[in-house]
Amino acid sequence: MKMEKEVYFRHTDLAMELQEELEKEGGAISRFNGITIKKRTFPDSRLREVIITVENEEGEKLLGKPRGTYITLEGEDLSKNDGDFHENMSRCFASHLKTFLGSREKILFVGLGNMEVTPDSLGPLVVQNLLITRHLNEMEYFRKMRSSMAIAPGVMAQTGMETGEILKGIVQKVHPEAMVVIDALAAKTSERLNRTIQISNAGIAPGSGVGNHRNEISAATMGIPVIAVGVPTVISIPAIAGDIIESVLISMGDVRLRERYEAWSDREKYRFMAETLREELFGLFVTPKEIDESVKRISYTISEGINQVIARKNAG
């Protein structure tokens, strides 16, 4: 049970959080051990970008992520009804997706998740708003665009099949040149919920954020490049308890006690939580109260970015 507790407290789908955790624990991150990091803050300071590249096996072991590029776009306003910000985010997202896809023309878009569960509905919602063109390629206007296909395959409880099995069958039948999968993720800090978009060319393991591991969807299993797009919508009770403790210590005004807690590594915080929280709390996850509207807005932002890439509009 100890290992299961550690997964619920420490696990995150975000490469940026793993990088922050590693640096806090004194780990050296550099191109010499297979990891490079580039950071950029946009002129209005509301949108930040972090690009983490895992280049070799040493980097994989250090960060705990498969080799590849992990791009994080982050801004507090992503969860808000701010049209200008969402438009800027769509353009920035589209520019990175365009780079990952390169000259590939025939793309399969996959909305992972359960439409009936709001925090898990991001993928299906994105697919609903995509520009689908594969069946229109006999028309001159649409020949100028990428050939796009889309599916929301549901979850195993609904289909009785692994998502990877469904997608592999589709790939073998229609032969897309690349696959883009969109899914809800788990974060380790509450400040990242509904405020972060991660794009990666390393594939994805559906359900891993909540300890419900399914077969990996990646270039190795699909036979074509797999680009993963995700937004953290849930956080575990043990992880959010850490945020609460830190807030309480700040409100108490005890600087020495707060600094002592903040100096703990995530592993030390895990041990404290494992000894303090009731066992049944380790399987619970929470999501922000405004999740319904946030997921709809973010799904539209992502779909708008994807549509720019399909239609070959200038991005970024």
Task: Sum up the structure in keywords.
316 residues; 9-stranded mixed beta sheet
Short description:
This protein is α/β, with parallel strands linked by helices and 316 residues long.
Describe the structure.
With 316 residues, the chain is an alpha/beta fold. The protein is 42% helix and 19% strand. It contains 13 helices and nine strands. The protein has helices at residues 2-10, 15-24, 57-63, 83-101, 122-128, 140-143, 156-159, 163-174, 219-222, 237-252, 255-263, 266-276, 291-310, and strands at 35-41, 48-54, 68-74, 106-111, 147-151, 178-187, 196-200, 226-236, 285-286. Strands 1, 2, 3, 4, 5, 6, 7, 8 and 9 form a nine-stranded mixed β-sheet that branches. α1 (2-10) crosses α12, α4 crosses α13 (291-310) and α5 (122-128) crosses α13 (291-310). Residues 1-9 have low confidence and may be disordered.
| N-to-C series of helices and strands | HHEEHEHEHHEHHEEHEHHHEH
Identify the overall geometry: globular
Point out poorly predicted stretches. Answer: 1-9
Question: How helix-rich are the residues, as a percent range?
Answer: 40-55%
**Major sheet:** 9 strands, mixed
Return Rg in Å: 20 Å
* Share in β-strands: 15-25%
Structural class: alpha/beta
Q: Please report the distance between the alpha carbons of the first and last residues.
A: 46 Å
Mean pLDDT over the residues: 86
